[in-house]
Design goal:
- It contains 15 helices and 14 strands.
- By secondary structure, the chain is an alpha/beta fold.
- It has three domains: 66 residues, no CATH class; 271 residues, Aspartate Aminotransferase, domain 2 (3-Layer(aba) Sandwich); 137 residues, Aspartate Aminotransferase, domain 1, CATH 3.90.1150.
- The strands form four sheets. It has a seven-stranded mixed sheet, with helices on both faces. A three-stranded antiparallel sheet has the order 12-14-13, with helices on one face.
Length: 510
C-alpha cells in the first residue's frame, strides 16, 4: 500500500491552493438573496481540506479498504446476527418508485403503504401476534416502545401500582436500560447453572407491582428457555405481561412463534434477522408486535386498508391505504402520558423495503431453513473448538454459544495474572483477517467469548475460522507474548485501552 495515503487524515494531505473541483458559474448573480441573521452566520472561515481529485480518490479508496464488513470477511459477532445482505435487496430498495418525499399524501403513496402493511402482517404471522408497528428505529428503541405499550395497558385499566419489570441476569444490556428510561424499576431474576431462568427464584418476585417480564429466547448464552410456558403462566396469573426480546429470533424462524409461547409484546430487529446487517452502528429498525387486544396501544401512525364508502355504490375498488392516528397516549416515566409517536413518519423505510425483499426471496417454505442452518453452524464450531476453549455449559446451543476463554493447558488459567485473556485472542484474530466475536459478554463468565456464525456462512469459511482459532490456542501455549502484543498487521496496533477511554480524541487538531 502507498504510504503517502496510508493512515493519514485528509487534512494532513491538504496543501493550500490545491483544487479538486471547479463549481459551475453562479447563475443567480443580480438576484436579491435572503439575508441571514448574523447569529446564523459563521464568524470565521470554514476550515476545509484543499486536495486535488486524485489525492481525494486515493485517500478514501484506501480508507474503504481498511474497513471490515460482511462483504469482506467473516463476522462471528455473537448476539448481533451479522449475516450477509443480498445485493438484490439493495437494488429493490433503490427503485425510483420508493424514493418518495415523507410528506407525500397517502393517495400518492399506495404502493409504499401496501409494502409497509404486508411486512407488518408477515411479521405478525412469523411471531404469532396480532399486529406490528414498524416505526421504531432500532432494537433498543423497540424495547422502549414495547415497554411503553405494557405500561399504557396497565394505566388504561387504572392499575398504576405496576412499576416493576423482571429481567433475567442473562438479558441483553439494553433490557434494563430501556426499562429504566421507561420509568420502571428493574427486578433481576437469577439463572440456573444450565444458563436458563430459575423458575423457583422467579416465584417470590411476582406480585401486584409487577408490570411484566422481559425474556430473550434463545437467551444470551444461545440456549432455548424450556420453561417459558410455566413462566408465562406465573407472570400472567400475577397480572403482568410477557415481553419477548426478539434480537435472537433468527434461529427460531419458522420453528416456533413467541405469541404461541405466551408472549404479549415483542420487538424484532429487521437489521439483524431480515437483511441489512447493522455494521457501523446503523441503520436499524425495531418493529414492535402485540397480541390481540393491545393493538390500540401501538404508536402512531398506523397503516390501515380502509374501505371508501363513496365508491361502494359504484362497484369500484373500494379500499385504499391510509394513515390512522389513534388517541391512546403511550406512557413512560411516572405513568405520564406522552405523545403516541415514537418516530418521524414510518421509521427507517429503507430497512423495511430490504426486509420485504428478503422475506419474499425466502418465502414461507424456506424461512425455517435460515434458523436451522444457523443452529447447525453454531454447534459445528462449538464442537470443533471445545478441545481448545473452555465450554462452561455443555449442551446443544441455538444460533450462538459462549466459551469462557482458553483451556488451562493453553494458557487460560484465570488465576494466573499472566494468563492469555479473551481480549488477547480477539486481538490476534485480526491478524488472520477475521473480525473478533463479542467478548466479555454476557457477564456470567469471566472470560466470555460469544460466537455466532449465522446461516449464510459456508462450511469452508467455518473450517478456516476453526483452524485459526486452534492455531491461536497453540500460539498461546508456546508463545503467549505473540498474543499479548497483537494485532501486528492492522493499520492501528494495540492501543492503551484505559487511556483511550480517559483521553479520547475525536477532533483533528492542525
Amino acid at each position: 500500500m502507498n504510504r503517502t495515503y496510508y493512515g493519514k487524515l485528509i487534512f494532513e494531505l491538504s496543501k493550500q491552493g490545491r483544487v479538486g473541483y471547479s463549481l459551475p458559474k453562479n447563475e443567480f448573480e443580480g438576484y436579491s438573496l435572503v439575508e441571514l441573521d448574523a447569529t446564523l452566520s459563521r464568524q470565521t472561515e470554514l476550515s476545509l481540506p484543499e486536495c486535488d481529485e486524485l489525492t481525494v480518490v486515493r485517500h478514501y479508496t484506501n480508507m474503504s479498504n481498511n474497513n471490515f464488513g460482511v462483504d469482506t470477511g467473516f463476522y462471528p459477532l455473537g448476539s448481533c446476527t451479522m449475516k450477509y445482505n443480498p445485493k438484490l435487496n439493495e437494488e429493490v430498495c433503490q427503485l425510483p418508485g420508493f424514493n418518495l418525499h415523507p410528506m407525500t399524501p397517502a393517495k400518492y403513496a399506495q404502493g409504499s403503504l401496501k409494502l409497509y402493511d404486508e411486512v407488518q402482517k408477515t411479521l405478525a404471522e412469523i411471531a404469532g401476534l396480532s399486529r406490528f408497528t414498524l416505526n421504531p428505529y432500532a432494537g433498543a428503541h423497540g424495547e422502549l416502545t414495547g415497554l411503553m405499550v405494557i405500561r399504557s395497558y396497565h394505566i388504561s385499566r387504572g392499575d398504576t401500582l405496576r412499576t416493576k419489570i423482571i429481567v433475567p441476569d442473562s438479558a441483553h444490556g439494553t433490557n434494563p436500560a430501556s426499562a429504566a428510561v421507561c420509568g420502571l424499576q428493574i427486578v433481576e431474576v437469577k439463572s440456573l447453572a444450565d444458563g436458563t431462568v430459575d423458575v423457583e427464584a422467579l416465584k417470590p418476585l411476582l406480585g401486584p407491582d409487577i408490570a411484566g417480564m422481559m425474556m430473550t429466547n434463545p437467551n444470551t448464552l444461545g440456549l432455548f428457555e424450556k420453561q417459558i410456558p410455566e413462566i408465562a403462566r406465573l407472570v400472567h396469573e400475577c397480572g403482568g405481561l410477557m415481553y419477548y426480546d426478539g434480537a435472537n429470533l433468527n434461529p427460531m424462524l419458522g420453528v416456533c412463534r413467541p405469541g404461541d409461547m405466551g408472549f404479549d409484546v415483542m420487538h424484532i430487529n429487521l437489521h439483524k434477522t431480515f437483511s441489512t446487517p447493522h455494521g457501523g452502528g446503523g441503520p436499524g429498525s425495531g418493529p414492535v408486535g402485540v397480541r390481540k387486544g393491545l393493538e390500540q396501544f401501538l404508536p402512531n401512525p398506523q397503516v390501515r386498508l380502509t374501505p371508501n364508502p363513496s365508491l361502494v355504490e359504484r362497484g369500484a375498488d373500494t379500499s385504499a391505504y391510509e394513515l390512522h392516528c389513534e388517541t391512546t397516549p403511550l406512557s413512560t416515566r411516572e405513568g405520564q402520558g406522552v405523545s403516541p409517536y415514537v418516530s418521524f413518519f414510518l421509521g427507517n423505510f429503507g430497512i423495511i423495503i430490504r426486509a420485504y425483499a428478503y422475506l419474499l426471496s425466502l418465502g414461507k417454505e424456506n424461512i425455517p431453513m435460515a434458523g436451522k442452518l444457523s443452529v447447525l453452524n453454531a454447534n459445528y464450531i462449538k464442537e470443533s473448538l471445545r478441545s481448545h476453549y473452555k465450554l462452561p455449559i455443555d449442551t446443544v446451543c441455538k444460533h450462538e454459544f459462549v466459551f469462557d476463554g482458553l483451556l488451562e493447558e493453553y494458557g487460560g488459567d484465570h488465576h494466573d495474572p499472566e494468563h492469555v485473556t479473551t481480549l488477547d485472542v480477539a486481538k490476534r484474530l485480526l491478524d488472520y483477517g477475521f473480525h473478533a466475536p463479542t467478548i466479555y459478554f454476557p457477564l456470567l463468565f469471566h472470560e466470555a467469548l460469544m460466537i455466532e456464525p449465522t446461516e449464510t456462512e459456508s462450511k469452508e469459511t467455518l473450517d478456516d475460522f476453526i483452524a485459526v482459532m486452534k492455531r491461536i490456542a497453540e500460539e498461546a501455549k508456546t508463545n503467549p507474548q505473540l498474543l499479548k502484543t497483537a494485532p501486528h498487521d492492522t493499520p492501528v496496533r494495540r492501543m492503551d485501552d484505559v487511556k483511550a477511554v480517559k483521553e479520547p480524541h475525536f477532533t483533528y487538531y492542525k
